[in-house]
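[step 3/7] fold_predict: job queued, chain A
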Amino acid sequence: MKRWLDRMTGLLTMYKLVLFVLIAVGVNALVLSLLGQIFYDPLSLLVSALVALVFTTASGWIAAKIARVEPHLVSSFITGLLVFFVMQPKLDLLGLSGIAIAGTVAGASKYLLAVRGRHVFNPAALGAIVPTLIVFTTFIGMSFGVWWVGTPALQPIIILGAFLVLYRTQRLIVGVTFVVLAALLATTVAITGGQEPGAAIQQVLLQSPILFFAGFMFSEPLTLPPRRWQQLVEALVVALLFTVPLPIGPVSNSPLFALLVGNLLAFFFGQRRGIRLAYLGKRQLGATTWELSFQPARPVRFLPGQYMELTIPHRKADFRGSRRYFSISSAPDSDGPITFAITVPSKSSSFKQALLDLSPGAIVNGTGVGGDFALPRDASEPLLLVAGGIGITPFASQLAHATERGEKRNVVVVYATSTPGPLPYADLLEKSGARVVLFGPSPKQLPAGWEYGGEGRVTGERLAAAVPDAARRRAFVSGPPALVTDLRKALHSQGARRVHSDYFSGY
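[step 4/7] structure written:
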């Protein structure tokens, strides 16, 4: 099941998956409205959606031109749909003006309300809170944030869609943590207020926006902290603000207020500026593998093993879009370049081709650094690093960093590849002093100290034969989703309990 999920969700970029899921929720809402299962009529839903999308996309496009960056239309469409689901559907001119204001603020904030190139707040939440404040302070009949999407009839498709999005973005634990915390707190508040427990639970899970909020708003990657523990801290803070009454204003207990406070917390946890990278050049590491080197305009803070999202606007972009996540292959260096390794098959995406076609000096933007695929601080802990193909990339960063710092780690690297010829980062592995076991096509010659494990799939038995003490090592597995799933099973079958994984879904 996991392999099928990885394959299916990997067909789409994160942005396209979110967009299509939101469209499915909208179509479902329209059908239910036609059947009389939703309070709002079909025409008000259609007109409100159109206004939200038009004003969000138009303001985003104008703001991008003012900021002299390329607009990201898929992102604007997502924000427009989120505004539509949050704002009260209307048909009158005054009511629709609230949606227009929300869309305009949301679209423009992506580019204009940013600190050194990095936006701070979730655009849809920021946009929706403006007309909400206007309504509460002037009492005019403008549309405001009512979260009408939190209705029982829509919950089945919301649950499915939120699961797919959280799974695809590897935020499932964070999303579930928020839902559990917020539901427990909200249910406790309701019961304390005299509501029956069964009715309170039903209201919290089926008649509130908690599930939609967790899957599509709270989980937005650009406004989450980079590390898992930081994300869990934010989940706790946002859940408290989401549910516990606070007497500090008309919107203090709204989901919008809770999310914006959480966004501010995430901003201080993470990289507090945009990332501008000047392209230096590329070198070929293997038959289909290239390393690309970039010089950051300012130092970029990251841990060995973390990833960065790159934006490469290019003409005739294919279905995969112009943004992609890549593990950093270089060690952290305040002055040195940052490198990424990519595999380029014969039928490559337009994004990868645009990467290879970059001219030295070209400027590329990174939207942020994240990930928890980091080695333990205790350098004496024995490690097993299992890489499948391009999965060697984060290990290259980690081993280079350890070598530069003079760390004497007890490391075994199991390197599985299906491609004959030169192995990416073989020289770095040799320099690190790690014991390396190679599984793949028979090599003509192995570096000194390396071992050949044979051809074919890496099973638990073969892994145990190659690394008899695998169960006593902390294991890290990196590579394509299917291979990572197999290798995790192989490690668990040999008694390994601490297995950390990093996979490239949709790579």
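[step 5/7] annotate
The chain is about 45% helix and 15% strand.
Residues 4 and 174 are 22 Å apart (CA to CA).
exit 0
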